[in-house]
Design a protein that fits this description.
The chain has about 140 residues and is α+β, with helices and mostly antiparallel strands. Helix content is about 25%, strand content about 45%. The radius of gyration is 16 Å and the shape is globular.
């Protein structure tokens, strides 16, 4: 039975349900900054950005890397729909460093390529931060 200060939380990707649990607090990267959710939060639909998602629950705290999507809060149920969600513990620092090098090497030829480079840099920066590396 869930504690009285918890709400239902789910993270879903196109491939699978990544996490379903009772949470006491969740912080996620909205498109315009970090948002936090506690029990009895007013209804919300929000576009997500690239960043770290923190979950506090009676079973322990968890952190994930997420890559865009949407969040919805309705009646003490927070649902995060995202293209990609990986536990921070599963991220590979070496891969994140390589992704940073590759992102910096992307050529900017127009607005679309500038946006793609910015997103690739953000993904690499967040993954480096979540693996404990310094942002270089």
């Amino acid at each position: 039975m869930a504690k009285s200060n918890t709400f239902r939380f789910s993270v879903i990707t196109p491939e699978r349900v990544v996490l379903e649990c009772e949470a006491t607090f969740v912080a996620f990267p909205a498109h315009d900054g970090e948002m936090g959710v506690l029990m009895n939060r007013a209804p919300l639909v929000c576009k997500l950005g690239i960043g770290g998602l923190r979950v506090e629950s009676p079973q322990g705290d968890q952190t994930f890397f997420i890559d865009g999507g949407f969040a919805q809060v309705v009646e003490n149920q927070l649902t995060v729909l995202t293209e990609q969600a990986r536990p921070a513990a599963a991220l590979d620092r070496g891969a994140a460093e390589r992704a940073m090098v590759e992102a910096r090497a992307l050529r900017i030829t127009d607005e679309k390529s500038a946006g793609a480079r910015a997103r690739a840099l953000r993904r690499a920066q967040v993954q480096l931060r979540l693996t404990g590396a310094t942002n270089r």
